Amino acid sequence: MNEQLLRITETFGSPVYVYDSETITRQYNRLTSAFSNVKSLKLNYAVKALSNISILKLFNTLGSGLDTVSIQEVQLGLKAGFQPEDIIFTPNGVSLEEIETVAKLGVQINIDNLSILEQFGTKHPEVPVCIRINPHVMAGGNTNISVGHIDSKFGISIHQIPLLLRIVENTNMNINGIHMHTGSDILDIDVFLYASEILFETAKNFKDLEFIDFGSGFKVPYKEGDIETNIEELGEKLGQRFNDFCKAYGRDLTLAFEPGKFLVSEAGQFLVKVNVVKQTTSTVFAQVDSGFNHLIRPMLYGSQHQIVNISNPEGRERFYSVVGYICETDTFANNRRINEINEGDILAFKNAGAYCYSMASNYNSRYRPAEVLWHNGEAHLIRQRETLDDILKNQVEIDFRIDAELA
Predict the structure, then answer these.
(1) Are 275 and 282 in contact (CB under 8 A)?
(2) Pick from 90, 93, 192, 183: nearest CA to 131
(3) Are residues 210 and 253 in contact, defined by beta-carbon separation less than 8 angstroms?
(4) What phi, psi does 115 have (nearest 5°)?
(5) Mean pLDDT for the stretch of residues 157-172
(6) Annotated binding residue 328
(7) CA-to-CA distance for 66 and 46, rounded, in angstroms?
(8) Are the beta carbons of 129 and 107 closer than 8 angstroms?
(9) What is the CATH number of domain 268-392?
(10) What protein family does this chain belong to (predicted)?
């Protein structure tokens, strides 16, 4: 694959994001197979992980639904061909007006606070609503991606269930789903199952449920030998428990997940060119033609992306600190063992499919890179590299010459 990646950089330039459709399909099928013991399974791909419309269309062909967090993601999903009923809208802290606008599109609404729940239920009691519960169960490898703890801004606390039930009763609103999300990078299956029991217990309060959504956050490996969520074990245990619950509930419900990282992280690689190899008194820097404007996860989350020198994969390993061209601290990796790097070499960052391009910016007025989909043995450009025209597109210039003439 290294030769194909090098050809992609020759054709489309660097930096460039490359995604493999076969890996995405494999991960999707792995998850559906793990829960084959469940009669009705719904996977709603988390659009925020990677929102390119061609990627969304790929998920549509796989039979996926969509998990969205903004009205813009909803609109992208509809444009990609998804039916409204296959999209769930799970925002946080948005206005009532945005939720009402999305509801008019026929999308499944998921509400995570009592204030909006009461307002929406009072005005639109006939619209089916899912409720996002905060189970107060901690998961996640970083505080920024742990959303189930007691101080989280996400979800309605399980300690507020009596008030929640009073709102539902007073408004006579239609609750058709219950949802939770504990956070990303779930490692302990038993912790997740414990949180699931809290969700099952909560679900007993609602008699007209159609689905229970267990969120996602499955951990993927970031390096050789790295630990990951045991999806097969989770499927066997949670699937059986879900079936038992449905039997006690009196009818079959749909088990829903909203995976993002699990489906696209390993499918993505970020290719950069080495501009300079710089030796200091104690460090060898490989300075590349990118920065945290294109890949912010290492700086924001402390995340680790395996870095491979695809121009010299058999070279002698040396220690390098890989840094970007942004004019402040901009470090991708410290003292990392990488095959010997020369100026002009292409480095590949692994696990670059999730929360990488989608969090890119124009900081330092740099262009965001191109995106390429490797599909059926061919490279397909799915987003052009930006130009100066894109940077200036929405800026409005003031003609200061007029002021000078008036003076």
Answers:
(1) no
(2) 90
(3) yes
(4) -60, -50
(5) 96
(6) yes
(7) 6
(8) no
(9) 2.40.37.10
(10) Belongs to the Orn/Lys/Arg decarboxylase class-II family. LysA subfamily.
Query: What is the pLDDT confidence band of residue 305, given thresholds at 50, 70 and 90?
Result: very high
297 in a labelled binding site: yes
The answer, as to whether pTM is greater than 0.85, is yes
- Which pLDDT tens digit goes with each residue over 56-74? 999 999 999 999 999 999 9
What pLDDT digit, counting tens, does each position of 17-30 carry? Answer: 999 999 999 999 99
Residue 75's contacts (CB-CB under 8 Å, 6 or more residues apart) are none
Q: What is the reported pLDDT for 153?
A: 83
Q: How far apart are CA 370 and CA 207, in angstroms?
A: 49
- pLDDT higher than 50, residue 146: no
Q: Where in the chain is the domain with CATH 3.20.20.10?
A: 35-259
Enter the tokens of residue 393: 């597109």
The pLDDT value recorded for residue 148 is: 44
Structural tokens at position 338: 């990488």
Q: Average pLDDT in the 227-254 region? A: 95
217 is in an annotated binding site: yes
**Looking at 130, 246, 327, 356, which residue is catalytic?**
327
CB atoms inside a 10 Å sphere around CB 182: 28
In this structure, the strands spanning 254-257 and 41-46 are: parallel
* Through-space distance between the first and last CA atoms of the chain, rounded to whole angstroms: 64
Q: Which fold does the domain 35-259 belong to in CATH? A: TIM Barrel (3.20.20)
The per-residue pLDDT for 183 is 67
Largest Cα separation within the chain, whole Å, is 82
Confidence of residue 138 (pLDDT cuts 50, 70, 90): low
Roughly what angle, to the nearest 10 degrees, separates helices 53-62 and 71-79? Answer: 60
> 327 an active-site residue?
yes
